[in-house]
Amino acid sequence: TDDFKQSQAAFGRSETRYRALTDALPQMVWIIDEQARLEYANERWSRYTGLPFDPSAPPSVGSIVHPDDRALLAAKCARLAHDGECESELRLRRHDGQYRWHLLRAVPLGAAAKPAARWIFTATDIEARKSAEATVAQSATELSHRADHDSLTNLPNRSRLMDRLAQMIDEAEHD
Fold first, then answer.
1. With DSSP H G I counted as helix, E B as strand and the rest as coil, what are the percentages for the chain, rounded to 5?
2. How far apart are CA 17 and CA 150, in angstroms?
3. Rounded Cα gap, residues 121 and 85, in angstroms
């Protein structure tokens, strides 16, 4: 019985370290089983989604995925067994109902399991990066437009005229 007590104590310490580690991460972390049921979620997941994690009645992970991204997630998850892992950018719903972009990564739990029955998911908030990408794309579009259009009339400028004229001459020469 001393061995059993020592094993239980070691297991308890291991569980405490595991929870402390996943709760300290800046990402949401969760584990799903072979039926895609939520088996574990770290504290950040619960705070972010506003959904308490109850192992006896786990919430559905799909319920926090943006409706437009659910098909992408389903396709990626369908390929998990074949690919062994996946990474995808999608929107997840916060506790206030707002959706934010995340980098979702899934890896098998237990490298020996082929095919894996359980998967570890992490979600990293990339909203700031996506916003910056959109701003850069918008700025590039505006700069391109400004380079070819008059700022007062918004009509094509001389540079644009000369470019189009050169294209038309080139097309006429090749016909």
1. 50, 20, 30
2. 64
3. 10
- pTM for this entry: 0.68
Contact 91, 99 (CB under 8 A): yes
Q: Are residues 69 and 80 in contact, defined by beta-carbon separation less than 8 angstroms?
A: no
Mean pLDDT on 130-151: 86
- 147: its two tokens: 């380079």
CA-CA distance, 126 to 136, in Å (whole number)?
15
In degrees, rounded to 5, the angle at the alpha carbon of residue 92 between the alpha carbons of residues 43 and 104 is 80
CA angle 163, 168, 174 (to 5 degrees): 130
From the list 49, 94, 60, 89, the residue with the least C-alpha distance to 73 is: 89
Burial of 14 (0-12, 13-18, 19+ CB in 10 A): exposed
Name the more confident of 170 and 74: 170
